Amino acid sequence: MATLTTTSGNIIADNQNSTSAGKNGPLLLQDYQLLEKLAHQNRERIPERTVHAKGSGAFGELVITEDISKYTKASVLQKGEKTKMLIRFSTVAGEAGAADAERDVRGFAMKFYTKEGNWDLVGNNTPIFFLRDPIKFPDFIHTQKRDPRTHLRSNEAAWDFWTLCPETLHQVTILMSDRGIPASYRNMHGFGSHTYSLINVKNERFWVKFHFKTRQGIKNLTNEEAAKIIGQNRESNQEDLYNSIEKGDFPIWDFKIQIMPEAEAKTCGFNPFDLTKVWSHKDYPLIDVGYFILNKNPENYFNEIEQAAFSPSNIVPGIGVSPDKMLQARIFSYPDAQRYRVGTHYAQLEVNRPINKVETYTVGGTMNNGMYKVESKKYYEPNSFGGPAEDRSYLEPDIEIEGVAQKFSYDDTDYYSQPRDLFNLMNDSQKQALFNNIADHIHGVNNEILNRALMHFEKISPDYAKGVREALNAK
């Protein structure tokens, strides 16, 4: 077997785990292979997004109805606050011309134009993801895209990767369940998915999960229903969202959070920064925050949706990140993708422009349309001429990290209990839909990969494996 190397021929010792300070992160910038894989992925295709290429969007308003000031000082999250927002829904794997009603995770990206700068929350319609280490992400996306030789999508590649990386099983179970094809963007929940942090006026930190619950009710499609819709309308979700807003039937989502005190991350019995795992609602119940409503369609889709640039690096005082390794990588990867896809000064475009004044020394490069003013002698920092300067009062509280840098694998190899919990929550009809959907998707995959998948299903539940076997035999 050949030894994996970088593009410069350097041997790669570990391509499964990012380099972090301690087992739970954060990640280190010295991990060249991680940065190289993410940066290369962002430049693989022109001009559409590498992932989430097919999307729909609308503008609206976030309204905070409850007092959560004991958790955060962020002005956008104070009771009574109303904030203009943009949301972009999307499929993940398909190209810009893909059909809306395909079985896929749905993107749920939000931009809030706050008084303290833009706050972007980039999530999905699922509370988890396939992976917990970003060094695997470019390879995972390769399995969802086209085989570079045949230029065809490959279910075999998808199942090969999923069965070799069993941390994917929780998300795979959701994707193959009856939740895998939402009937519309209006009829699905949204999640921040990652663990973030909230910081209050006392400089106390809380870990947080963001949830958005649709008031329109959950509605999904079967494979047969989706196939019929695709045959008639490849833009079914775009049409539904646009028309509902045009006729005044404005969709609404309730905004809720889960909260964990900072110190509890060490004693809670699981890694709260693992993106493949949910937090128990029993231990960390949902807390009401407010709601958002979508009430305005874009006037120019290209300008306002296609050129919209989201990044979890856009945060405001009182909201922060966490040692979630996938989140840490996306802080780099998303703005890097925008610089390549849209252009150096993508933030100057109207849809991405904050409502507060921008004070920056980052003025060079293409697309500078004059928004960033440069006064005489005030073009570097620090300077002696009264240019904008840092304000250390906005520093976040210290975060404790472990002191050994290494390619850490996860101690937690329990890939099965949360998928088992999800499976046990399903009724007989939902389980049968899961079996049939997996059988449809995995049919024709080679026996080695098929048997590996059945082995994993058996570990989740014997009934899970039995149901898939029977569905395969019926084909």
TrEMBL record:
Keywords: Heme, Hydrogen peroxide, Iron, Metal-binding, Oxidoreductase, Peroxidase. GO terms for cellular component: cytoplasm. It comes from the Bacteria. GO terms for molecular function: catalase activity; heme binding; metal ion binding. InterPro entries: Catalase (IPR018028), Catalase_3 (IPR040333), Catalase_clade1/3 (IPR024711), Catalase_core (IPR011614), Catalase_haem_BS (IPR002226), Catalase_immune_responsive (IPR010582), Catalase_sf (IPR020835). The active site is at residues 52, 124. It is an enzyme of class 1 (oxidoreductase). It catalyses: 2 H2O2 = O2 + 2 H2O. Its cofactor is heme. One of its GO terms (biological process) is response to hydrogen peroxide. Residues 5-389 form the Catalase core domain. Its EC number is 1.11.1.6. Heme binds at residue 334. Belongs to the catalase family. This is catalase.
